[in-house]
Amino acid sequence: MELPLAHGTPPLVGRFRVEPEDFCVEEVLGFDADGSGNHVLLLVEKRDANTGWVAAELARAAGVASRDVGMSGQKDRRAVARQSFSLPWSVAAPVDACLAFAGEGYRVLAAQRHGRKLRPGSHRANRFVIRVRDVSGDRAAIEARLQLVGARGVPNYFGPQRYGRGQSNLASARGWAAGGDAPRGRTGRGFALSTARSELFNLVLAERVRRGDWNRLLPGEAVILDGRRSFFRADEVDAALVERCSAMDLHPSGPLWGRGPLEVRAEALAVEESAVAGEAALRALLEAEGMDQERRSLRLPVRSFEWRFDHDSLYMSFELPRGTFATSVLHEVLQGAWEHAVEDSAV
After folding, report:
1. What is the pLDDT of residues 23-59, one digit of tens each?
2. Cβ atoms of 126 and 347 closer than 8 Å
3. Taking each helix axis from N to C terminus, what angle separates 185-211 and 280-288, rounded to the nearest 10 degrees?
4. Quick check: is 76 catalytic?
5. Fold (CATH) for 161-300
6. Whole-model pTM over 0.90
7. Structural domain spans, the chain
8. Which one from 22, 34, 48, 76 is the annotated catalytic residue?
C-alpha cells in the first residue's frame, strides 16, 4: 500500500487508534424514518465490534434471520461508531422493545418504525472525529498541511481496509483470476471482485498523483459531478470546466473496471490504459463476472474540516461521502497512517 502522496511527506508524527474512542464515525443517512411500516430503523452504537457480528446479534435478539437485517455500510471495528440497521418488525409490536437490545460492544440508542429494509450504500455520508496522540512535528507545518487538505482535498484512494487483513482479499482475487478456485460463498466472491476493482482504480489514481494531474482535467476526461455518480466526457477542457474543477464542483474520475470500453479518450485514455496494462488477469476476471464499467472521483473533498490541538493530541473532525475512506485523509497528514489502519472493514 505504498501509494504516492499528493501533498508531500506528512509533517505529523503521532499515535493513532490507541483506544477505540480515538476513531469515532457517525453514519449520516440523509433521510428520516418513515414512521410507519413493517420494519424498524435502529440507531446503534458499537465499540470495538465488527459490523457483521452486531448485525447477527440484532437478528438473534429480534428472532429473525441474519439475511433480513438491513444496513447501509460497514464501519471500522477499532472505533466507536454510530450507524443504522433495519429489522423486520410486526406492526402490532411496540418498537420500544428494541431499546433493550444490547450486548458486549453494542447498544441500541433509538428505534423508529420504517417501511423498508435498509440497503447497502443508502446513506449519504460519514462524519469522523479522530484523535492522534503524542503529536510531534513542526506545528506550523502541520497547520499548513491541514489547511491544504481542507482547501484542495486528497486523492480518493481505496484504503487498506478494502484489501483485507494481510491483503488477503487481493490475494484471493489474484488466485481466482489466475485460474484458481473462486472464493467460497457470495460474500467471499463479492469481496474479491470489489478488491480487484479497487486495485485497478488505485493504480490509475497513483499514476495521476505521480503526474501531478489527479485534481485536474485531462483532454478526453470522464468528468464526474461532485457528490454524484453521473459523469460526462470532456473531449476538450475549456476555461469554464477548469473553473468548476478548481471550485470542486466536478472532478476527474477513474475506472471501476468491468465490461465495455473505458469512458475516456485522448490523453486520459492513454494514462488509464498504461496504468493497468500489467493487470490483464484482474481485468478479465471482472469482465467475465459481469461487472460493468463505472466511474469514481479521483479527488476526495474533505468537508466541514476542523481541528484543534489539546496538549499532546490533535483532534480532527470532517465529513466524507459514502464509500470513501478516512485513511485517505490521514495518509496525507500522518506518517504511517496506512500501517495504523484496521484491516477488517470499510466505510
Report:
1. 999 999 999 999 999 999 999 999 999 999 999 999 9
2. yes
3. 140
4. yes
5. Pseudouridine synthase (3.30.2340)
6. yes
7. 13-21+125-152+302-340, 31-114, 161-300
8. 76
